[in-house]
Structure formats: C-alpha cells, structure tokens
Amino acid sequence: MASADENETLETLLNKATSPMNRDEDWEYIMNFCDRVNIELEGPEISCRLLGHKMQSPQEREALQALTVVEACVKNCGESFHRQVGKFRFLNEMIKLISPKYLGTKSPESVKKKVIEMLYSWQAGLPQEPKIIEAYQMLKKQGLVKEDPVYMDKAYFPSPAPRPKNA
Amino acid sequence: LGFDEEEERDDHMLPM
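Predict the joint structure of the above. Result:
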C-alpha cells in the first residue's frame, strides 16, 4: 500500500477518505488515515474531533464514509482510539445525528441506521467503555432506538478476549 | 484537578 505523503495532515487525509467524489469506499485512503492516527501523538483526539464533524455532513455519502472511517479506526487504532469514542464528547456527536432535538429530523435514514448499528456493536464489543452502553441504553429509553439492530459486523469483535491462564 | 479529571468532570451526555 502506498504510504501517505508527509505533507498530508489528518484533515486532508480524512477529506480524501470521505470525499463524495469517491465512487466506493476507498480503503487505501481510509487505511492511510488510520495509519496517521496511530503515528501522531494526539491522533486519536484530533481524529475524533474531525470525524465528529465530518459524520454530520449534509452530504449523505460524505457522512456515511466518515462513519466507515470511524469503524476502521475502531478496528485498527487500538485502545487509545476506543477511549476517545467512549467519551460523551464524541458519543454526543453520534447522538445528535439521531435525536430530533439536534439533527435527527434532517439526518438521512441510512446515516441514522449506521450510527445505531455502530453503537450497538460497540456497547457489546467495547465493554470497557461504559459511556457507550449508557448512551445506547438512553437512546432505547427515549424510544430513539426501538429494537436492537439485527446487523452486527461480527468480524469486529469475534469473541471476548480470552482470560489469562494464570488468573 | 488535573486535566484528565477536569475533562472527565465536564464530559456529560446530551439531553435527547
């Protein structure tokens, strides 16, 4: 895979990875972004701020691709990224896409569906981030999530981490 | 408070 140009920033890499001009998800751009998140000192914090903004794009394709980038980072950028998505500072940006108090009435159904699927997947797969569970439960309590999605990308979290043998 | 503690204290879920 070609490595990203050193002049690129997280922002320019994200713009490429989420461009509405991309015909399909461009995994080279997406992985370049993930690599940069892993390299930069404050990569997880900065990327979550950029992603929180990008996934609220009024352009459906851009928003959906931003959510795909978030998923890719959760898979590839480890615990420090998980800690960032596990903060309300980021989770609130997802909540805004669903709640009618914010962007919920304007968000495309496809975006809302993907956000709910992701939160559902994370609350099961990232139990060490309790705020994700709290947010998901509140969405259900408020009736914004009627039932758990049937979709779950099992490739994310194939099984719970094995217990250490010497526990 | 340290930065992390302060950030944690200010990290709240939005009312829906």
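Chain A has a mean pLDDT of 91.
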